[in-house]
Amino acid sequence: MPTPSLTDTGHAATALPYALPAAAAGLAYLNGRHGFTYDWPLLYSLVSSTVSGALHARRDTLNLFYELESRAQSSHSNHDWVIFQGRSWTYAQAYDVVLRYGTWLKSKGVEKDEIVAMDFVNSDVFIWVWFGLWSIGAKPAFLNYNLTGKPLVHTVKTSTARLVLVDQEGRDKFGEDALKEHGFLRTDRADKVEYAFDMDQSDVSPSVRNQTTTPEVSEPLPAAQRHVEIIFFDDALTSHILTLAPTRLPNASRANQTPSDMAMLIYTSGTTGLPKPAVMAWGKCGIGAKFASSWMSLKNDIVYTSMPLYHSSASVLGVCAVLRSGSTISLSKKFSHTTFWPEIRASNATILHYVGETCRYLLSAPPSALDTQHKVRAAFGNGLRPDVWEPFKRRFGIKTIYEFYAATEAPGGLFNHSSNSFSAGAIARNGTLGSALLAHRLTLVRIDPSAAAPEPLRDASTGLCQICAYNEPGELLGKLDATNISEGYQGYYGNEKATQSKIIRNVRQKGDAYFRSGDLMRWDREGRFWFLDRIGDTFRWKAENVSTAEVAEALGRHDKVVEANVYGVQVPGHDGRAGCAAVVLRDAEPSTLASLAAHVRAQLPGFAVPIFLRCTQRMQRTGTNKQQKHGLQAEGIDPGVVEANGDVLFWLRDGVYVRFLKSDLERIKRGAVKL
């Protein structure tokens, strides 16, 4: 090989300054086109969290109690883990408190793998009870603290818990009269107050009913009856618990857990009917938390959340993600305009957690000189809508949005790390590598959204689902292992019918299996996913799924309601759909409307109470005698359109239903009214 001459070397040296910028420009172009640097954190987080999950499964340390213990016994022991209402607890202090709560729970007879129901607003005690249960190998069932009446009783029954722990704020809804109304009979025994109830065959499947045990009582109970003990947490009880010994049970008390075994139950409203207990498995909990901590680069961060811990968003991707990174979680009791930013400033939070409507509420408050006086570097959550996204970032000086899409029972999720306007409003974004990976795990299929029970459309010749093209709306499906469904999807506890309803087969090829999200989306050529709507009757309002069947049933229990047809309507300037009920009333007197408003507010969680009421003389029906919703939804909340059809529209103001006028609609359009 000839040796380069000095002249050749000189030419090379001269060309180098020109070649390097050209190469850099080429690499930048390829990166911009294919998003390699964007995909890397996502793929790294996926791989590292999966490897971590496999190692914990091999060591039988999937229970995140071990993560807390490890932090408490390391050099990290004096680092704050929990901040609440001005107080803070280090990892070592939290570990000590958790062990004391475990001691108390054991004194109540709680056994390994037993399910214990919890009805708590956000607090430090919520975390102590939760991890106290994990410390002794038991499983918490998180009840939605907004639920009252029949939905609340249903969640207690379907949890199969014999022990229900309730904070002071929930005392009234667990009162004796409220429980008696729904079939709970008080049966005092020795030093405890218990309630017995008949098992409703629709509440829990036979397999779960057969697994439940009933404590010994003076008189034998029927086979289909259970006892429930309800314990209210007050200051006296929490003070007593802290006097107990911090006893650490042996590892055998938490042993033999697999990635698909239950870590906890988290209730969802589902697509129809009453809330269902979704199984949050150890694998999903641990891997999801590890993924979130890596994806958001949590290091020495303080994550602030005012979102309810009974949701997996705040519990798994908030508390557990912070635990897995050794960071700090700052809790708020509930979301409030008045406490949100002051609590963020007081805790020095660096990341805030949201659901979409949270950001809209914050943006609707009058501007303040303090809007950017904080240390928040990023916001993470789900449901941040396109029209709020950029204004929220600009006003509050937030550089990065970590938006995700997931469901407690789903086998996976979608993620969007956004620091510019390219993916603003999208629930996910991926580069070429990420999209290639997702192409094997996710698919969008065509459906008929106007159908009463929308199902994916299939090819007449092959029987397989019709796959959507880019930018075409379709239902999002997630791939499952057809030979081992429970590995990625554990379904709803004790409800095989509901579990199976979310599985669809023969999608892309014969014999395959996918999870049905129930959500309508589109995927564009730039690798972005856009959420469009919920499929079917269920609609989303204030980041919650609202079951029309549940609302209609509650309305129907009022003695002046002849018939009710519930649906979601679009409201200018608001995310999701607001609840509207077309009702046939025996009379529409003001006293009836006031009584009806009080009734639904007592029977339903706040987000499910219909904001609009359409009084009609005759319900619209199909040729098969089914209620029609599509026409009512299309007419929406325009009083002129509604009244032209002979109906009258009301809306909920200050706790009562009053006439909704054209001027009210104009005020909403101007942004003068927020629902």
Automatic annotation (TrEMBL):
Keywords in alphabetical order: ATP-binding, Ligase, Nucleotide-binding
Pfam families membership: AMP-binding, AMP-binding_C
GO cellular component: cytoplasmic side of plasma membrane; lipid droplet; peroxisome
The keyword Ligase belongs to this UniProt entry's keyword annotation: yes
AMP-dependent synthetase/ligase domain segment(s): 74-445
Domain of life of the source: Eukaryota
GO-annotated biological processes: long-chain fatty acid import into cell
Residue ranges annotated for the AMP-binding enzyme C-terminal domain, each copy included: 550-626
Sequence similarity: Belongs to the ATP-dependent AMP-binding enzyme family.
Name of this chain's protein: Acetyl-CoA synthetase-like protein
